[in-house]
């Protein structure tokens, strides 16, 4: 049996929100959420003359761009404070001799040959990262947690599962993102956002997923320690990427941000369903009126 046109339109519009358009939109508004984003939508034709016209009618998409007019639409900036980061030992970096030149801008000082991060700067970058994650979740984007931390693998995987997203904490196969069709043996979508609780892989090397995500222009959020390079990360967050308490904090913060984005999406989908039902009733009433006439 054929699917009714209204249900087909609704399904197609919901699936369209999971397209890479969300990724391109987030890139275009990085760091300037206060600016308005202009959107153009075609108005539905109110005059319906036949059933054929009803079948071809497509309603406008869910309007989500108004959230970009708010600096903190989801209230995620209140989740993180310098005091909270300090309590979870986020300010500890590696030894000063291993300091990456790109991380000097985030350093508060050096004590006992150990790098100390400026938590005011780390807090600002964490808030920006949480805001991005919430916006991606609102647009039903695919979020992938990637890390090679054996002592925190279960924590990261459980966090992704609770968020309804994905995680990769095992050995990375080259081409998992850039040649996903050959690796997965099927057609797969690449993620809209990759979150790295740590950018390091085995033997202190940079995780290969960082390079693959950069090649595909996939936005990345990463906790970048003092011995790591932030150049290929879209939204770097300077901080400790070794201590379990710090990793636990990162997972809790991102889980809450993603949950808030999805909660807002559920509300908007419910409004969309109500709008579709109302317009369908209006169409049916017009058709019945014309038949009687």
From TrEMBL:
One of its GO terms (biological process) is translation. SUPFAM superfamilies: Ribosomal protein S2. One of its GO terms (molecular function) is structural constituent of ribosome. Transmembrane segments: none annotated. It is found in: Mitochondrion. Keywords: Mitochondrion, Ribonucleoprotein, Ribosomal protein. One of its GO terms (cellular component) is mitochondrial inner membrane. Belongs to the universal ribosomal protein uS2 family. Required for mitoribosome formation and stability, and mitochondrial translation. This is Small ribosomal subunit protein uS2m. The gene is LOC117652460.
